[in-house]
Fold this protein.
Amino acid sequence: MIGKKSKTIPDKGGSVLGSITIAWETQYKEGNIMWKVPRLIRLNDNIVVREDETAVFYRDGKVLTYFDQPNRYALTDFNAPVVQGLLKFFTGIQQQAEVYYIQRRYLDGKFGSTEPYQFTDPTFGIVSLKVYGEYRWKISNPENFINQFVGTFNLETTDQVEDRLKDQMVILIYNAIGKMKDKGLKVTDIPANLLNIEQVVLAEAPDQFQQYGVEINKISGLNINLPDEVQKAVDKRSEMSVLGVNYLQLQAGKAMVDAAKNPTGVAGAGAGIGIGLGAGAGMGYAMGGQMIGGMSGGLQQQQTKACPKCGAIVPINSTFCPNCGAPLQGTQNQGMIKCPKCGTESPPGTKFCPNCGTSLVPQMVKCPSCGFESPAGTKFCPNCGAKL
């Protein structure tokens, strides 16, 4: 913080009464960008400059000169070019200059938006976004830094300087998001493009921060908060991408898994899926089986069967039902319907083959004598015995 205590050492060997040696002590640098010497500089003072700092002479709203090389500078040597440049300001008490010490090393800061960014999305409409993150920076031009922050903005503390930089970082990120939106970026694409946004910000940072004498070296931990409904859509998209399915397949698979966990609602849930997808109960089963295979490590071709006791859909090689515990050995083909065209076996009640789409409902013939219906191929009516 500007004005933080440091050390001013009386010059015991000085020839001019009241001259001092000034140094910014290390224990006062932590967390501070700069330090203002608490009194005006006089002729015969000594300025100590270390490797990680710069001493800037400032007067009347502008920088006069600065020392950026480590040394002890005695303002008594009139042969030193910098002292000669300052000499005209040491002719009287009213002509004395101020000195600011500033850090030369990289500093870490955090930023966060106070007002949301209004992102217009074709699907979700106007979405309010807030950004947070960290950045690394340093003072690259001491003259511009002091002239801007001390002279133009009249800032007095380190916190004020950092607040100004944070605001500029947020504005820069909002500009980057806006430019990427113009190129087709959607709000649901933002989480997958955080690194790209960081790179755009770093590329444009020099034009924004050079005027302040500041260099942005790194941006990390960028986080753009999305509203809950948008975040759910992003999570759903990620889930579909991992499983390699579309939205309808994802919903069908989840419904089948839920039905398997609830044996009392298996039949109703399976029929509902078929109707909802417009493909019948058989198509609903096929989608569910595909999804169960996908969620079991990507084995989308894994065959399944129904538990004879509770009806839960389980892998065909299961020994016991994971839902009710009933033994399943020897039930692989029990009650299965074989497709007359491709030979694929399906559970009882399936109306269409999930492999080729052939109807699995047997064709019926009516008895000419009593009208009783029997499966096609029956030679005699099982009701009256008449020849069919």
Observations:
- The helical segments are 81-86, 142-152, 158-182, 194-209, 228-243, 247-261, 266-277, 280-294.
- The first strand starts at residue 7 and ends at 10.
- Residues 90 and 108 are 38 Å apart (CA to CA).
- The longest helix spans residues 158-182.
